[in-house]
Amino acid sequence: MDWGTIINNTLAGLLTPTTIAFALAALGLAMHFGFAGLLNFGIAGFMAIGAYGYAISVLTFGFPWWAGMIVGIIGSILFAILLGVPTLRLRGDYLAIVTIAAAEIVRLLFLTTAFTDVTGSADGLFGYNNSGGFTSANPFPPGSYGWGPWTYNSETLWVLTFGLGVLAVCVWFLWALMRSPWGRVIKGIREDEEAIRALGKNVFAYKLQALIIGGIFGGMGGIIYAAFANVSPGVYVTSITFFIWTSLLLGGAATIWGPVIGAVIFWTLQAFLSNILPELALAGILPVTGTQAATLRFVLVGIGLMLLVIYRPQGIFGDKRELTFVK
Amino acid sequence: MSNSDSPKKSTGLHIGESGPGCKKTDPMLVIDHVKKSFGGLTAVDVEHLEIPKNAITALIGPNGAGKTTLFNLLTGFDTPDTGEWEFLGTSLSGVPSYKVAQMGQVRTFQLTKALSLLTVLDNMKLGAKNQVGESIFRALFPRSWRKQDAEIEIKAIELLKRFKLDTKQADFAASLSGGQRKLLEMARALMTDPVLVMLDEPMAGVNPALTQSLLGHVLDLKKEGMTVLFVEHDMHMVRHIADWVVVMAEGKVVAEGPPETVMNEQAVIDAYLGAHQDTDLGVVTGRISIIDQEKDK
Ligand SMILES: Nc1ncnc2c1ncn2[C@@H]1O[C@H](COP(=O)(O)OP(=O)(O)OP(=O)(O)O)[C@@H](O)[C@H]1O
Ligand SMILES: [Mg+2]
After folding, report:
1. Distance (Å, whole) CA A186 – CA A316
2. What is the Cα–Cα distance from B97 to A143, expressed in whole angstroms?
């Protein structure tokens, strides 16, 4: 077994545009679920809308990259409102059902051939980073940067820098909100919204605000992902939503840093498993073929998620006293 | 009962004959034709009822009489089939519950609603009205809310001291006992600076010694100019502090009047009070001394 490559690839997973994108989406879920108690199972939909909003406005409408990204964010806000207005008055579990359905509708709308001119259908969209000017906005001259597993070309470095900047702003934003009296109301709603209503707070408005803020983070995650890879409808599937949930619960749902660290751990672990499992199969230690071994990691992720929720529901960073998944 | 510790009752609350639906000299709540059915069951059917201002009114009646349902209707937590009601002259029909609370009509719940994973202090601070930092935009600028938040905290701690919960302020509300949660909910309601306080069984599960001091708090509310409407099954408490008693049975108001008269009416005794009601109850909260008394007999 080539331990050198395995370790190298695993360490590289610590910092990639994908990790950052997923950290952002997990941060959005932390706002929704961890702090406001909103069961959103449609975070992939928010990411898709952010990504497509950016790509379509550049490719179809000729927007510059930054304007395209703003369109992506506005799209996520509208999606949050569209989802929230009819459902936030209902009980929490209904929101879960509606969000999972809405995210699928979004994905299928982008996949259908009816709008191929705009969405690219199953092929997705590409080339927008160049034509929108995101690539040429790169301040780093061409070359190789970094060290060891963390060696990047200037393009990747630019996406990483940009993504980290966005992530830092979002983390600060969430932290600033949650330490304020606004955050107190949000956490109160998570505990018992009737009690909060009895104290004279407009619970519906607060829940909608929380849905929008988390949705913006999710949309930003989609945008960062799109700034690195192509936009493809095959990415924004329901399993992505569950990966993000896993990251969130791993780190701790009601924490600021939990979702970020959770996403890093999740993707590092994914990198590790996707490298070691085929190697183990090849070496005959695992009685499966190479392709089967690669899928095995998702099985392990599923088992891991179950164990996590049962034995450490508050996550790695969560206060032991706070947020027990099963109340 | 020594006269020194019996509170001063408000009198002259009603106009004319006292009886179900009688007029009040200065009503705070006026309820008309409020009706609510659940399927075939009529839970509340109140023709006319006025709640006097700056007095303590007790709402009593057997289990399932519709007291909690009436509370829910009056505070916007449930909508009636028909009827309207006014709070200080403003119609409240169709007004959402949070707006009702903002107008100064605050309630507590029979099944206590403590915000479990918030600290006791945060529970309290949530009660304060008109908080600048509760607006999402101002929340980002601590300079705009820090001072107000500090003032709220001082007020919260004072109230917690009154309710003997100040040592618990840093603990999660989940760690409180059932009775302590009742106290916390009542204290939190008072943080809203209410005009009308509606308490649904505030004393259930609170130990006798604390009941005594709670009674004191309720009486203080009246002194501070608030109006109290409470549901309670503890007749000693009702007798001791209520200025006015409204009796409900099967959704209807069957009797109302000052406690001394109402609680002697045959209809009320039949509907609700039963045998023990004319025992000399001694000290209000003297659940223990009653037992002693009975033993002595
Ligand atoms: N949501 C509901 N659905 C169906 N029936 C209800 C509902 N809420 C209350 N009821 C019924 O309405 C009647 C009045 O209930 P309510 O809770 O108002 O009684 P209560 O006077 O508060 O009694 P208690 O003293 O036991 O608290 C009861 O018969 C109850 O079964
Ligand atoms: Mg009741």
Report:
1. 22
2. 62
Q: Which residue has the tokens 């993504």?
A: A163
Dist CA A256 CA A29 (whole Å): 11
**Distance from chain centroid for Cα B163:** 16
**Residue closest to A301 by CA, chosen among A234, A250, A254, A258:** A250
Taking the C-alpha atoms of residue A313 and residue A276, their distance in angstroms, rounded to an integer, is 28
Q: Residue A71 corresponds to which tokens in the numbers above?
A: 């369109």
Of residues B123, B135, B172, nearest to A321 (C-beta): B172
Atom of ligand 1 nearest to the CA of B66: 18
> Which of A186, A190, A199, A320 should be substituted to probe chain B, the one whose Cβ sees the most B Cβ atoms within 10 Å?
A199
Q: Is the dihedral of CA B170, B171, B174, B175 positive or negative?
A: negative
Question: CA triplet A242, A245, A250: central angle to 5 degrees?
Answer: 125
Residue bearing the CA closest to ligand 1, atom 25: B63
Determine whether the interchain pair A198/B106 forms a contact, defined as Cβ–Cβ distance below 8 Å. yes
Its pTM stands at 0.90
- A247: part of which helix (H) or strand (E)? helix A238-251
Of B108, B115, B140, the CB nearest to A188: B115
Both tokens of B90, joined, read 């403003």
B99 → chain A, closest CA residue = A200
**Relative to the CA of B39, which ligand 1 atom is closest?**
4
Alpha-carbon distances, residue A96 vs A81, A198, A248, A305 (angstroms): 15, 25, 16, 18
CA dihedral sign, ordered B20, B21, B27, B31: positive
Q: 């701790």: which residue's tokens?
A: A252
Q: What is the distance between the alpha carbons of residues A309 and A288, in angstroms, rounded to a whole number?
A: 29
Helix axes of A65-87 and A203-228: crossing angle, nearest 10 degrees: 140
Beta strand B90-91 pairing with B82-87: antiparallel
Residue A21 to residues A162, A239, A277, Cα–Cα distance (Å): 11, 15, 25
Interface of B with A (CB under 8 A): 75, 77, 96-99, 101-102, 106-109, 113-118, 122-123, 125-127, 129, 131-136, 139-140, 142, 145, 149, 172, 174, 185, 188-189, 191-192
SS3 B257: strand
* Tens-binned pLDDT, residue by residue, of chain B (297 aa): 334 456 778 877 888 777 788 888 889 999 999 999 998 899 999 999 999 999 999 999 889 999 999 999 999 999 999 999 999 989 998 899 999 999 999 999 999 898 988 999 999 999 999 999 999 999 999 999 999 999 999 999 999 998 889 999 998 998 888 888 989 999 999 999 999 999 999 888 888 878 888 888 889 899 999 999 999 988 888 888 999 999 998 899 988 989 888 877 776 777 676 645 444 444 444 444 444 445 554
Predicted interface score ipTM higher than 0.90? no
Give SS3 for B83. strand
Whose structure tokens read 């206060």? A319
Q: Give the tens place of pLDDT for each residue, A270-290.
A: 889 888 888 888 888 888 887
